[in-house]
Structure formats: structure tokens, C-alpha cells
Amino acid sequence: MPSVTVDPTGTVLTLATPAGPRRFHAVWLRDNAPDPETRAPGNGQKLIALRDIPADTRIAAAGMRGDGRVEVRFDPEEKTVAFDPAWLEEHAYDHPTPRARGWLPAGVETWDAGLAESVPCGDFAALQGGGAALRDWLGSLMRYGFAKVANAPAEPGALFKVVDLFGYVRETNYGRHFEVRTEVDPTNLAFTGLGLQAHTDNPYRDPVPTVQVLHCLESSAAGGENMVVDGFAAALRLRDENPEAFDLLADHCARFEYVGEEGVCLTARRPMIELAPDGELVGIRFNNRSCAALVDVPFDRMEAYYAAYRRLGEIIDDTAMEVTFRLAPGEAFVVDNTRVLHARKAYSGTGTRWLQGCYADKDALRSTHDAMVRAGRLEAAQ
């Protein structure tokens, strides 16, 4: 059974758990109080602003109730609130500061060519049925950053049904979707038979589309295999080889642009390796075709920056990093465009190769997955 103590000033509560003590500040506890005057019972949104909480909030008393909840009385409001100790443990912030720059949260797993034997894949009909099949497929997509779909309809527009599994289409200047097949005088190199270096899509957008879906309709041309590379694994390999090179790509912005259509001039200024303020690795933007002139690196660091940029490209091009597969008509794959780079091998002008692609956003994907996990926990607890 957990136990609680309060420091003499009333500003810190300590919850003793089997995993060790967890400390919480009085103002944090008050701000996160679950009572119906603080949070709306239906949706959990806060009903008060921080200005409504006294600046001198302190804990007057605390203890364990008979039902196992932690009861806390706050002064000067003289307000009593009960907390679920499991919730407190889950949301504890009293832990060591994360490690080296480029750390990854639990549940994210990096990979290389070894994943080719177990590429995450879901059957379309099973995914449409929801339940564990969809939850687990979405979980794999979040863990690895990509997943395949098999046995979807091999018909135009079917990719929207894939997006419907978890979210909504994000429309761009390319429309709700785009065609990937050979064109005469193409507006984008993606519409040729040339092989493409592994890249993230649309780095010139701000914000970048966070999910991409590619769905195969025809595939009789020789070549044209799809390939994916874990950008997080590539960035961490660079960090382990040369921390200075990693820091250069994380600390200085690159510039990306696209002006391939009349009336369109898309630009973005972001680092190739994006870190959160606490060092978490949160994103990769790598697309040599769309990289504009680099002007945000100091003169005395530019040569070293280019060496780091070159080395990251070499790591991405290493076949030991890639997973390659050929999409058959009715198959699709979904990638986290902030993490996983995708490419295709060159293909011949004979036969046909026709894919349709579209963009969506990762927040809806995460929401669908997390809501399913949450519902499962609630059902199991009943």
C-alpha cells in the first residue's frame, strides 16, 4: 500500500511506491485536481485557469483513504481532493533528467534491414472491423513508424479508406491525393521512372504532413520496389559515430523549398535532425531534391556541416539500413513522415506502375490508437 508524507513547508507531497518515492509540488497537484469543480466530468477539460489557483497554494494535510486514494487538503482554499495513486505514478515527473541528446521515449523501436522478415502488416478487412486487429496495427505503426496494408481494393480512391481507419486526409496543393506514375514533362521527380533517394516528403511545408499513404493500383513494370529507412536509427547511428556531426545537423536549420507549379512557392526553415528542448529525438527532414541554399550555418562551421550532411546521407543509403518490398495491386503502406524515409528503386518504361498517394496527420492516428487502448483498460477494470 502506498503511503504519503508532506514536507514541513506544505509545498511538496511524497508518494512512497514499490518503485521508489515520487515527489509532487502542491501547485502541480492543485492544477491537476480531478474534482468536478476543476475538470469537466464529461471531457476532462479544465474549468479553471492558473490565475484562479492561489499563488501561495500549499498542502495543509494529506493521507491515504480507506478506498486507497490519496486525499489532499489545499490551503488557503481549504479544498479537499482525492487522487488515484496509479494516476500519480503514471504522471510522475520526479525522475532523472533524460540521458544523451537524441533519446527516444518508451514504445519507439528503431530498426534496420533486419526488420524485412517481420514487416508489420494488417489485412484490410480485419482492420476495418476494428478491435484488436486495428489497435495492434496502429500500435506497430507508432512503434516502427510504418506499416503495410494487404488485400485492400485495387481501385482508384481506395487509399481514402485506408486513411479512414485512423484519421482524415490532409489536402495540399497536389489535391486530396496525387498520382505516382510516369508523366511527360513532370512537375515533380516522383512522377518519373527514376530511382529516388530515401527521403521524407514535403520538408518545405510548415507544418510538414506527418503521415503519408501510398496505395498500389498497377504494378507490372520491372523494378520500382518500395524501400523504407528508419530516420531515427540513421540519426542515432550518426550520433554514435560522431556526436559533433549529430549536433551540427540538430543545432542549425536547413532550408527547403518547392516552386514546381505556377502560383506555388513553399518554403520551410527547420533542422534536418529535430530535437525537443529536453533532447528527445522528434523528427527528421531529409530530402536532397528540395534542399535550398544553406544560409543558417556559420561560415566557420559550413564545411563541417556539409561533412555531417554527407555522412547522414551515406548512412541512409547503406543497404544495411533499408527494408525493401514490392507492393502488389491492392496493397498499401503508411509511413510516419516525421521519422521514416521512403524511396523507390528505378523502374523501366515497359509495363505499368501506378500508385496513388495522400497525406494525413499523426495526431489522429495516435488518438485512434490511444482511445482504443484506454477503452480496453476501462473495460478490463470493470
From TrEMBL:
Pfam families noted in UniProt = TauD (PF02668)
Q: Which residues form the TauD/TfdA-like domain?
A: 131-359
List the GO molecular function terms: 2-oxoglutarate-dependent dioxygenase activity; metal ion binding
The family line of this record is: Belongs to the gamma-BBH/TMLD family.
Question: Which organism is this protein's natural source?
Answer: Maritimibacter harenae
Gene3D superfamilies recorded? 3.30.2020.30, Clavaminate synthase-like (3.60.130.10)
Q: Which UniProt keywords apply?
A: Dioxygenase, Iron, Metal-binding, Oxidoreductase
- The entry's protein name is Gamma-butyrobetaine dioxygenase
Q: Could you tell me which InterPro entries the record lists for this protein?
A: AlphaKG_dependent_hydroxylases, GBBH-like_N_sf, TauD-like_sf, TauD/TfdA-like
Q: Which cofactor does it need?
A: L-ascorbate; Fe(2+)
Q: Which GO terms describe its biological process?
A: carnitine biosynthetic process
Keyword Nucleus set for record: no
